[in-house]
Amino acid sequence: MSTSSLPPQKQIERIHDTRTSYALRGSDFARLKAAGVSDAVLDYLQQSFVDDVDLLTLYWVTGEGLGGGSAFYPQPADVEQMVSGHGTAGHSAPGRYLPSLPPGVPDWVSSDLAPFSAKRISVSDILAMSRRGDSDSQIIDQLHNAQLQTLGGAPAPKTIRTRPLAPISGSELARLKDEGLSDAVLDELQSRFLGQYVALERLRYQNAGKKK
User: Fold this and answer.
1) What is d(CA 1, CA 36) in angstroms, rounded to the nearest whole number?
2) Mutual orientation of helices 136-144 and 123-131 as an angle, nearest 10°?
3) pLDDT tens, 56-107?
């Protein structure tokens, strides 16, 4: 669709109508951008993925389930091959039990997080490390030992949302590639962000309705 004359909003509507989200890694957004996907569509892909991670976290906390059907979960994607779907781009069983992640959240999402009391690290800090010549392993080690600061995401929409905006947008992940971050660091950034997001949303849902 992105290489056709179909406007981005129409592309978004068609993706929305399929009720499909894609479990995209950080580096996937730069690859999609290079293939002609617009910033608006990149942001929609990230937001719909984050929305489903949020919903899966809610079900995980409340004990609800999606019945184990692979089509109900964010679809794994191999952007280099331009294929998606369990059994095609993903080899792990969909919805299988993991002790620290909701069923349906991909197993590449980090669950080995630094404590909430750990130092904070921002995207600007990560870019600064890259620009001064720190290796990927050094940057990733810093990510492992810190909590991500609130990240700049997509502009606030004009409609009321029932779930949080993605703190980091698809177009921002693509831009960070242009600014020098490697695929390995982008993948780790997406992994750590989603892991931290799950942990925070889990606490929010566990504490919902409790008296202060």
Assistant:
1) 9
2) 150
3) 999 899 887 666 566 678 888 888 888 887 777 666 666 677 778 998 899 8
- What integer pLDDT is reported at residue 149 of this predicted model? 86
d(CA 130, CA 80): 24
The domain segmentation of the chain, as residue ranges, is 8-207
Q: How many CB atoms lie within 10 A of CB 179?
A: 11
Rounded CA Rg of the chain: 17
CA distance linking residue 36 with residue 15, whole number of Å: 16
The tally of CA atoms less than 13 A away on the side-chain side of residue 145 is: 6
Residue 84: both structure tokens together: 């998606």
Q: Is 75 helix (H, G, I), strand (E, B) or coil?
A: strand
Quick one: angle between helices 170-178 and 39-62, nearest 10? 120
Q: Taking the CB of residue 172, how many other CB atoms lie within 10 A of it?
A: 20
pTM listed for this prediction: 0.86
Cα–Cα distances in angstroms (integers) from residue 122 to residues 24, 127, 159, 167, in the given order: 21, 9, 28, 12
